[in-house]
C-alpha cells in the first residue's frame, strides 16, 4: 500500500472514531507500527491530526474554539443534535457527554429552556456557559489531554452522587450484538457510571459507527433507551437494532 493510501486510511479512521491507536492501524493496514508512527508524525506536521502517546486524535476532537471547521461529518452531527433537543424540557436535569456530537447538542439548546446540565467535558461546558438559562455543573477529576474530559475515581464518585433525567452520550463503536465499546478502559468506566446515574440514556451516533466494535465493553445495546442517528428511523441500516429493546430516532 502506498503512503498516500495509508495516510488517507489513517485520517479516515481518526475522523470517524476521534482517536485511534497505532497498534490498531498497523494491524488494519498490515504494516509495522514504526511505519504507522512515521505516517502519523507526518500528518501531525501537516496539521491534519494530532499525534499523542500511542496513537492520534482528530483536530476536531481537541479543538475547543467556539466554531470548529475540522469536525468530521458536521452536518450529520448537527442533524442528530437537532433530534436530541426534542428531549429537553424546561426545568430538566441532564448530563451531556464529551465529543463533537454532544458539543453540537450543547450549541443547539434553545435559549428559552431552563436546564441543569452536568458534564465532564471542557468543550461542552464552555458551550453551555453561553446559554443564559442553563446551570452548568462540571464533574471534576483528572482531565484527559486527549478527550478533554474528566476521568478517574474522583469523576466516578461524583457521578455516583447524582441522578439525571437524561444522559446524552457518544461512543466510539456501537453494534447491535456487542453493544457499546471503546478502546480506552478509563472512558468505559466513566460511561458506565453515567449510565448508572441516568433515568434514561440516549446514544448520539453517526451511522458510520454502526456495526463496529472494540476491546472494552461499555454496556449492552438494550442499556440504551434511545439511539439517535442522522438516518430516518425506518432506514434499512437500522434493521439489526429493531429487535432490541431500544427506541430509534
Structural commentary:
The chain is of the alpha/beta class and 249 residues long. 35% of the residues lie in helices and 23% in strands. It is built from 9 helices and 15 strands. It has helices at residues 3-17, 22-29, 33-45, 59-62, 74-84, 100-108, 122-128, 153-160, 185-196, and strands at residues 19-21, 50-52, 55-57, 92-96, 115-119, 134-138, 142-143, 150-151, 164-169, 173-175, 179-182, 198-204, 216-219, 226-228, 247-248. Strands 6-5-4-9-12-14-15 form a 7-stranded parallel sheet, with helices on both faces. Strands 1-3-2 form a 3-stranded antiparallel sheet. Strands 10-11-13 form a 3-stranded antiparallel sheet, covered by helices on one side. The longest helix is centred in the N-terminal third of the chain and has 15 residues, at 3-17. The chain is globular. The model has no long low-confidence stretch (mean pLDDT 91).
For this structure, what is the CATH class of the largest domain? Alpha Beta
Tally the beta strands: 15
CATH architecture of the largest domain: 3-Layer(aba) Sandwich
Strand arrangement across the biggest beta sheet = 6-5-4-9-12-14-15
The helical percent reads 25-40%
Indicate the overall shape: globular
State the secondary-structure class: alpha/beta
Average pLDDT for all residues: 91
- Name the helix and strand elements from N-terminus to C-terminus, one letter apiece: HEHHEEHHEHEHEEEHEEEHEEEE
Poorly predicted parts: none
The CATH topology assignment of the largest domain is Rossmann fold
Strand content: 15-25%
Strand count, sense and barrel status of the largest sheet are:
7 strands, parallel
Rg, nearest Å: 18 Å
Number of continuous helical runs: 9
Distance linking N and C termini = 39 Å
Number of domains: 2
